[in-house]
Amino acid sequence: PFDVLVIGGGPAGAAAAIYAARKGIRTGIAAERFGGQVLDTMGIENFISVQHTEGPKLAAQLEQHVKDYDVDIMNLQRAEKLITARVPGGLHEVRLENGASLKARTIILSTGARWRQMGVPGEDQYRNKGVAYCPHCDGPLFKGKRVAVIGGGNSGVEAAIDLAGIVAHVTLIEFDSDLRADAVLQRKLASLANVKIITSALTTEVLGDGEKVVGLTYKDRNHDSLHQIELEGIFVQIGLVPNTEWLRDAIALSPRGEIEIDHRGETSKPGVFAAGDVTTVPYKQIVIAMGEGSKAALSAFDYMIRLAPA
Ligand code: FAD
């Protein structure tokens, strides 16, 4: 069996595997797609001490760094079931889609999350060419330009407030007749001169010139009429979905489906840890996921050295 088995090969999983392997313990990492969300990212400018890099390059470096250590890498493997140990200190089991079963003394779950997409024409085509999902990451790219934020929940309204300080103009588009964000955020938003709020509106298309976004079309749900807005950027803020469908019966999840962890990264089950975007940790970012993955690995090691020899 493994001493530490990491599930997920994004920044959190890669950091966890490296920190575990550096303790000289038997470490494995299984990932559906090594690199995770980083593979879908173009420019990265907030990975501290690296002024600028690109997603695919950083993903390759993550994998190379893990390969420098004695880690059993199982890429293109999807985990579909976690069976936690029945007795404290017993082995946990992870079943893979290919039928294999992996056993480990400790597990680190780092299966990440995915941004919910609008699913409208143009969204995929202009992803990273004006269509963005992360205001902390891509906001500065739209300095002085016009953008829309899709979604009037807390994350959408926070994004609109954040972007209003950087860009020329923000249009916030909400499907319902009211914003769903906290009142204090709505008041702040309403006080900003360069923000326009459109409610009861369904975005129906991302418009582009073949190279980049030039606008969007939305349907006014009250009058069933179509309208166009000219702009350079669209931030989609309609939810970040944690990849925890396979864990529902195994460990405690928050109402949003995120893995609940304590300050050491431990889940509701002893010996099972979690890190990164898949957890309740606030702010989903690469540097944060790496820190959380490292922390989970150190916690797993700490847990293991206290186990009575089996
Ligand atoms: P992820 O990167 O999501 O990795 C999850 C891993 O788990 C993957 O290997 C995946 O294949 C695997 N996995 C999922 N389910 C299973 C399963 N059942 N079995 C096995 N493996 C599984 N952050 C920044 O800091 N700066 C940026 O500029 C930036 N730009 C971004 C741009 C875009 C377009 C996106 C989508 C995100 C961006 N982010 C950025 C956010 C950043 O990518 C994430 O915070 C970070 O990747 C989270 O790392 P993670 O390891 O927790 O999860």
TrEMBL record:
Q: Where does FAD bind?
A: 3-18, 267-277
The reply to whether Ribosomal protein figures as a keyword in the UniProt entry is no
The entry marks the following residues as binding NAD(+), namely 146-160
- Which Cys-Cys disulfides exist here? 134-137
Q: Does the keyword Oxidoreductase apply?
A: yes
> Where does the record place the FAD/NAD(P)-binding domain?
2-293
Which GO-annotated molecular functions does the record name? Answer: flavin adenine dinucleotide binding; NAD binding; NADH-dependent peroxiredoxin activity; oxidoreductase activity, acting on a sulfur group of donors, NAD(P) as acceptor
Per the UniProt entry, what are the Gene Ontology biological process annotations, in alphabetical order?
A: response to reactive oxygen species
* Cofactor(s) the protein needs: FAD
Q: Which domain of life does the UniProt lineage start with? A: Bacteria
Instruction: Name a GO CC annotation attached to this entry.
Output: cytosol
Provide this UniProt record's keywords sorted from A to Z: Disulfide bond, FAD, Flavoprotein, NAD, NADP, Oxidoreductase, Redox-active center
- The record's free-text note on cofactor binding: Binds 1 FAD per subunit.
Q: Could you describe the subunit structure of this protein?
A: Homodimer.
**What family, per the record?**
Belongs to the class-II pyridine nucleotide-disulfide oxidoreductase family.
Q: What name does the UniProt record give this protein?
A: Thioredoxin reductase
> Which organism does this record belong to?
Sphingomonas sanxanigenens DSM 19645 = NX02
Q: Which residues of the full protein are shown?
A: 211 to 520 of 526
